Amino acid sequence: MRETLAEWRPAVDEAITDLVPREVDADYLEAYFGEPTYEYDPDGIQRALADPLWELLDRGGKRWRAVLFLVFIEGFGEDPERYLPYACIPEILHNGTIIVDDVEDEARKRRGEPALHHIYGRDVALNAGNAMYFLPLKVLTQNPAALPADRQLAAYEMLIAELNRTHLGQGMDICWHNERDPQITPDQYLEMCACKTGCLGRIVARLAAIVTGQPEAVERAVADYAELTAVAFQIGDDILDVENSLGRAGEFGKEFGNDVREGKKTLLVIHAIEKSSPEKAERLQEILAADSTTDEEVLEALSIIEEAGSIEYARERALGLAEQARAEIEDLEFDEETTRKLREFTMFVIERDV
Amino acid sequence: MRETLAEWRPAVDEAITDLVPREVDADYLEAYFGEPTYEYDPDGIQRALADPLWELLDRGGKRWRAVLFLVFIEGFGEDPERYLPYACIPEILHNGTIIVDDVEDEARKRRGEPALHHIYGRDVALNAGNAMYFLPLKVLTQNPAALPADRQLAAYEMLIAELNRTHLGQGMDICWHNERDPQITPDQYLEMCACKTGCLGRIVARLAAIVTGQPEAVERAVADYAELTAVAFQIGDDILDVENSLGRAGEFGKEFGNDVREGKKTLLVIHAIEKSSPEKAERLQEILAADSTTDEEVLEALSIIEEAGSIEYARERALGLAEQARAEIEDLEFDEETTRKLREFTMFVIERDV
């Protein structure tokens, strides 16, 4: 998978440049957004849109959403080159959510540098992030692969459905953060992940199925594969945060006990609260709810999670989901090469090797 | 127009309630957003979405975007009742932009009460505002008026195009705010208004034309009518701020010299900078760029604007645009009643009587 990622990345970035060039001018604006009624200000739009977008993209990212899309296209027996503009859709959407999430979380850093709202101001960053929700959807109207109208419509309907659920997931997550004692079941936690993280994965998979005209059952299977992989990824993220904080996972680049300090209600926390004694559960909730937390308190919370067996529980769930994801793929008639890549992908995702 | 607004408002609010009920439950979530993979948290989504949305809607607003849509539908000879869910699309979009704009501007108040991010927190408010960008678009997929597929697709393409331009307009506006001396032409200012404010008006008009299957020329004419009216409205807003601040326009409910304090580059400011002596133009820019501004400085800036004849200039432009808007309508074969309502609407909009 690593080679596939490296192989496609330049082409993906080139395709993104076709949608949002590094240097905006009036000709581009007219071609992409339509004739102005009066007169565009290319300088303003450069600073409001192109600069923030490329600032973030140039900081890295493996473009795995775009590449996964292209792997599917190839698996469906079509030429990935032809669908490169469509590969940019989930990639730009994803980067838009990053900018908006960072504003919502008041994040200081992103990919090792100041979060975008610290560079451009909250207003510019937020508007750029939101613009990135709509900008890539115009690819469907431009219709570079000359899709028939029914596929264009199906793609729009799919995107709107998934982007709706993305916001439900983010909404649940934020509300749980902000409350001391939300009553969340493990299934509700998994649903939050499926919505918040999974829907972007579903967009990757379903878009590939729709533009190449796959039967519904195939679209459903690849969507489930992508969603399951994304949920497994999210749980893996939560586990890593705890393990790293307990000094077990080596370098992970996150601050110590981040999730506990933020009061995140992860699957591990939900499990620990359920399985611990009432006193310990209460103490864990207290630490999570506190406005500021000492290192000792963070360690105390982490010990409660560890003692409840929540790390093993979460790892088993994540592995189970990755297993299910692979099973979705086995039933499809992909060539060996594609099946191998997709299977590998579920591993990489959990092992954070992408 | 006032009667038309009062007449339709309850039906519009009822239709919005069908899309986002005041009390969210699992059945609604499943029906509207699709089956969950695991289990939704209706309580979380209540607080993340339904509560903020209804908090804002219950504060007032005339729902004129929805009603204007219904006036068009009636003018096109169709039954407005049948298209009520579609009337909610621009209304919910508009309220979403209000929430997001208030976060971007760090606004304290909205409709006389605290801005939503001061009640729910920035994260919840922002996510709710963004959710309201996608939520109403699902109406097209639900297809309550049983539209043929080509009209569904045309509606999606139109919405994505206009929402893209909305973000260009907002981007230009923000960038100009943040810069001391942006070189803006009057045409670029009008374009910013056409994008930022006009596109929501265009959505109202074009959506009505598309769902009822009007010819392209009709869609273009009503879109231009709506855009011109919106631009006139925006300029009217800028004039009112200056006039009110100069103690001429009576009660307007805004704080004194708001636009000057914010450093807004309005059409009046652009004109004043162009027409004043270099010293006065420099002084005006200096005051606009200042981080904090005394009442005396605000009045000084306002005098420079007034002396340059910028109020008259802006009023003439606004009246000219409203005239153009009316001309777009005259050529269409609407019944007298509809033409009267639409003509009235351009007046009401400028006189702030809606």
TrEMBL record, chains A, B:
GO terms for biological process: isoprenoid biosynthetic process. Residues 315-342 form a coiled coil. InterPro entries: Isoprenoid_synthase_dom_sf (IPR008949), Polyprenyl_synt (IPR000092), Polyprenyl_synt_CS (IPR033749). Pfam families: polyprenyl_synt (PF00348). PROSITE patterns: POLYPRENYL_SYNTHASE_1. GO terms for molecular function: metal ion binding; prenyltransferase activity. CDD domains: Trans_IPPS_HT. SUPFAM superfamilies: Terpenoid synthases. Keywords: Coiled coil, Magnesium, Metal-binding, Transferase. Belongs to the FPP/GGPP synthase family. PANTHER family: GERANYLGERANYL PYROPHOSPHATE SYNTHASE. This is Polyprenyl synthetase family protein.
